[in-house]
Amino acid sequence: MRKAERPDADVVVVGAGAAGLACTADLVRAGLRVVLLEAGDAAGGRMRTDRVHGFTVDRGFQVLNTSYPQVKHRLELRALRLRPFTPGVLVHTGSGLRRFTDPTRRLRQSGDLLPGRLAPGRDLAALALLSARDVLTPVTRMKARPDATTLAALTGARFTPGFVETFFRPFLSGVFLEDRLDTSARFFHLVWRSLLRGTACLPAAGIGAVPDQLASRLPPGVLRTGAPVAALTAAGVTLADDRGELTARTVVVATGLRAAARLLPGLDVPGARTVTTLYHAAGRSPLAEPTLVVDARRRFLNTCVLTELHPGYSGDGRALVSTSVLGSPDPAGEAAVRAALGEVYGTDTTDWEPVHRVTVHDALPAMPPPLRLSRTTRFAAGRYVCGDHRATGSLQGALASGTRAAREVLADLRGHPPAPPRDDA
Q: Across the chain, what does the average pLDDT equal?
């Protein structure tokens, strides 16, 4: 009797974004033969950085939060040479810029938190109570709370409509990539907790340094770039452009949600949010600090001067300004954004040079309530799916989903059920 041929790999992972990299690392560590296929020219998925006209620009505005458990577990943060943003944000209101900051970190800059400036005393008291609860409550209890929309949660926390419109809606629109605040309150509380516990940063080389570091730790030959997958087969996967088949007993789909739905017909995927980031070069910096700015009139999601964070993002000494907006604006919309930036920064923006524009169509999954913060990655026998669309729309969610996929694959191959997911996975 003829012996069956050995498959090309024990596991094929499709997609080298954060989830795929985490899954692959754990499977390799467990001793499996793994091939990680990436359609693009490098690992990273949506976490990529480009050099455009001498400027370092990410594919959409992104930040790294140092409080994420998976980030602390998987990354050597010192090697990333992180550049921190100023704690808090500047809110542009009818009275100009008002600073919203954590007084436990920047007491001298917290004057706008005095009653009557940014908000009435009632809102500040509600904010202090909300923050204390989210920082001190164990994650397991936060996950067990009944879910609702973020707007309903803020109303229930007794914030006034004025404070919601002045601060929460413009700020959270940039976090959720939607401005109705219909994202899960469960996710909001986890985000708020992470903001209070961690520091928002960017690597000196851009956000792409994160997946680059994860990919660099894989053994040679595991990651194959420029290898798009056309379909899953009974024996493994078929590569696009008639490149043949790669056989494996197990396949993990770690792509974005649209590609995952194509490769796994019948997969239930959420809607997605679209965001566009505009990069401009200015002769001089319009704001002498690395602080995120939001607009109470919501003419854009957020803006910041990236070269205040790290001068190396510019190759010619000019300031690099990043501004994100919902959707994909037309030329008239871009002109309106530039005019709004002139008002917000208090400067003439007519001579700002457009450097780059990035539209990300599946930037975040929609996360309406009730939100399941972690879902099984099992799809069918020998077929798994992971990514932030299976958890939460964040780097933490993507890494945790990849972690869970590896755990479930190993449990199934070894013939026993996996342990329940931890709070950080």
A: 93
